[in-house]
Every structure is written in structure tokens, then in C-alpha cells.
Design goal:
2 copies of one chain form a homodimer. Chain A is of the alpha+beta class. Chain A is built from 8 helices and 10 strands. Chain A has 2 domains: 64 residues, Winged helix-like DNA-binding domain superfamily/Winged helix DNA-binding domain (Arc Repressor Mutant, subunit A, Orthogonal Bundle); 168 residues, Chorismate lyase, CATH 3.40.1410. Chain A is elongated.
């Protein structure tokens, strides 16, 4: 829905034309876009201009370069992540994972889990009302979809609350961490999600296999039990090109 | 909360150190960070390494370069935008603007308003169940905070619904568009917000005065009345470094 103006530099106009062709489905996911030589011939521009046009589509997350093969429409349909329905008690109370509703028939899988006991980072200790350096159970997971890493999740829980439960194990059992918190009498009753966007740190870019120039979405989710105790803080880092976050709510 | 490893390249370690110093408040908003010469002397590195470290902080939105003057901590506290409380009927029913809760004592101001009647873009027509090219009232606004543009908002409303009301005027009166929709018997009863992040298009980067390498957050908000009719689609583009989006909800 952006407006194009006549004052745009040439490379931006070429990029806008390619973008419109992708939006209209003339180039689908995985399709190769016209190369530099094609664009030079078609638009009568210098190689640098053609390269800038293709570069712009890459920083917008629409296309990605494959070494030696050209520039391709990113072969990725975004995941619709419903913040509110997704976490409804009906869902995780039934032994389904928090993520199952997001992806239709595609399988979002955890390809690495690390569980550790560690001192609380200052920000988490603050939210939980704990002393800095109080012990936390920390669960670090990476989620992949169609073989592509899309989400890094770091979940922090009070160590004393979850001691000797499956939460301290890689496999937490049906329904996951929230079902186990419910078993303990601390079912989440309220959530807060704080959402930001920024460029990835180098470690995040590598672990999410992000093309250069693609930002991440960062979600800090805080889970409160019925008494208002913070029972989990989950810091998530998402490939921005892989996700649409949806929040539905009453006025 | 990111982990730093010993395997990091030198420029990343220097950037991590500067980032930690900003987080700890040793450099506050608007403060000048050490320059390339300072970092070269302090860490015994080449100019390129010092430059890469400072460049990384810029792409993360933590710092910005000012021509000839150095690299400075971005002078901007993020706006906390509450998706759910913010839109509560209690608020806009009382003649307060949707945005007033976000910013404490700082003034978020509209510095440009354009109202036009235009044919519906395909995506908006689809959501509204209208024919493509059906007429819409389109309100384009830019919001600035502390003199810095932070938000571009494009609001689409069915032209027949809002004809001859203040919604077609730049100034919609107390309570804004939602209060006027309520006057018409079409008060918003339910909202959907869809959130994405991406790099800005060139036009957006210019209108938001974004430093290079800073992504935008894109929110598409759909407002439904009590009968389920879509009464507004609002597409917002936010400076990602200026906003934290907050959503609070029951489990």
C-alpha cells in the first residue's frame, strides 16, 4: 500500500516494480528474480543500479541471494502466531503444545533444548521480585520450520518452584511447561507480551540463519499465576520474515 | 540477556562491551561513545575493527552517527504502546485520544494529516468485503514525539459510512475517529492487530527520519463493530527503536 513517487531514484523504481510483481504472484516463493544483466538490458541502467535494486529487496526480506545462482523470492510463508487464542487455557489444558495452532499442517519442531540452573539476569530477577543471582531454571530452545530455524526461546522459571519436576528435563511431557505449572497449582492466569524489533546480534543471526539485513522480532512474555506471582519469563527472538503476530481483543 | 562467547570476533566483543556500558547507564541517551581512535588505543585493534564495532551498535538501533561529530547513544526512550488497555472503551469513550496513555508526560503530536477519498487497495477491500475500487475515506497521519517522527498511520474507512461526518475532516473532534464511529452507531467492539517487522522502504525511511539499518514495525489494525462489520483498517509503520508494544491478556 505504499505510494511510489516520480522523484524516486531509478533503483528504487526498479525494486518497486519487482516488489509489485512478487505481490501479484508473477514471481512465487523460490522463483529466481531477473538478474543484474536482465535488469540492465530491460531498464537501460548500470550494473550498480541493478545491484542496488536487488539489494533493496533483500534487506526488505522479500528476496535472498544464493551464491552463484542469483536472487530468489524467499521461499517462506510466514507463521501466523496468535498471541491470545494461542495461549487460551482450552489449548494447553488439552495437552497440545502452545505452538500447534500456529502453523496449520506444517510441523514446527524443536531441534535443540538446553536446560540449566543459572543465576537470574538482572532484568528477570526484577520482574520476578527475586534477588539478583537467585537461581533460575533456564530452558533454551530453538524451533525450526521446514528445516529453517525461526525462533530462539529462552524460558526462565524460579528454580525452587520447579525443582524435581519434568520442567527441569528436556522433555516436559504433554502440554509442556504450562501444563506442568498447572500440576503444581501455579497455572498461568494472565500473560503480558512485550514486542520489539531490532537488528539481530551476530550470534542470533547465525543461530537463525538470517540473510544479512533481516531484522528480528523480540518478544518478552511474562506469565502470572492467579495470585499474580510471575511463574515464567520467556524471551523469544523470531526471524521477522517468518512471522506475523496476531492479537485479537475486545474493545 | 544474550550470552557472549569467547569465540566472538574482536569487533563483536568491543560492541558487547559498549552495549553493556549503555545498558548500565554509563553512557546515557545523547552521550558520545568512544571514537575509532579511542577504541584503537584502548583495545589495540585496527581502525576497521573499531569501525565495525561502532557500526554494529548502529544497526542494532542503540547508537547513531552524526556527521563529523562521532557516534552517539540514540537519544530516545521507547514509547510503551499498550494494545489492549489502550483501546479500552473507557478511554476513547471519555474523549481522550487513543495515544494519550502511551507516553506519560511527553506529547505525541500529529504533524501532518491528509484526508482523501480513494479507491480501496486490494488487501483492504478484501478485509472489508468490498469491491476492489470501492471508495474509501483515507486518513494519512504522521506522529512526532520530541520532534522526531515515530509513526506513519494510514486509516481506511468505508466512504459511505463516514460521508458528511467529521471523520472526513482533518480534525475529527474529541475522542477521534472511534468516538465518531460510536456516534454513528458503529462503535468498535473488537480489534485485530497483526504485527510484522521488516526494513523500511526508502519512502518510509525518509518520512520517519530513520538512521540507516533500523527496521520498522508494521501493525495492521482491523476494527469490527458489534455486528462484525469491519469499520476501519489502520496500517501503521513505526520506528522500531521508538516503540515497545505491550499486550496484556488473560490465559
Amino acid at each position: 500500500m505504499s505510494r511510489e513517487t516520480g522523484r524516486q531514484p531509478k533503483y528504487q523504481r526498479i525494486a518497486a516494480e519487482l516488489r509489485a510483481a512478487v505481490d501479484a504472484g508473477r514471481y512465487g516463493p523460490g522463483d529466481r528474480l531477473p538478474g543484474e544483466n536482465d535488469l540492465m538490458a530491460e531498464h537501460g541502467v548500470a550494473r550498480m543500479t541493478a545491484r542496488q535494486a536487488l539489494g533493496l529487496l533483500q534487506t526488505e526480506g522479500i528476496a535472498e541471494a544464493r551464491k552463484g545462482a542469483g536472487v530468489f523470492v524467499r521461499d517462506f510463508r510466514p507463521i501466523r502466531r496468535r498471541g491470545i487464542e494461542r495461549l487460551a487455557r482450552a489449548q494447553w489444558g488439552e495437552g497440545r503444545s502452545v505452538w500447534s495452532a500456529d502453523i496449520g499442517n506444517r510441523e514446527l519442531a524443536v531441534d535443540s533444548v538446553e536446560v540449566a540452573q543459572e543465576p537470574a539476569p538482572a532484568a528477570v530477577a526484577g520482574v520476578m521480585g527475586l534477588d539478583e543471582n537467585a537461581d533460575l531454571c533456564v530452558r533454551r530452545r530453538r524451533f525450526v520450520l521446514d528445516g529453517k530455524p525461526v525462533l530462539l526461546s529462552t524460558s526462565y522459571l524460579p528454580a525452587d518452584l520447579v525443582a524435581d519436576t519434568p520442567i527441569t528435563q528436556p522433555d516436559t511431557g504433554p502440554g509442556g511447561v504450562y501444563a506442568r505449572l498447572a500440576d503444581l497449582g501455579h497455572a498461568p492466569a494472565r500473560f503480558r507480551e512485550e514486542v520489539r524489533s531490532r537488528m539481530p546480534g551476530p550470534d542470533e543471526g547465525e543461530r537463525l540463519a538470517l540473510p544479512s539485513g533481516v531484522p528480528v522480532v523480540q518478544i518478552a512474555r511474562t506469565a502470572f499465576d492467579a495470585e499474580g506471582r510471575v511463574v515464567e519469563v520467556n524471551e523469544m527472538v523470531l526471524d521477522s520474515a517468518a512471522y506475523v503476530l496476531e492479537y485479537d481483543f475486545e474493545a
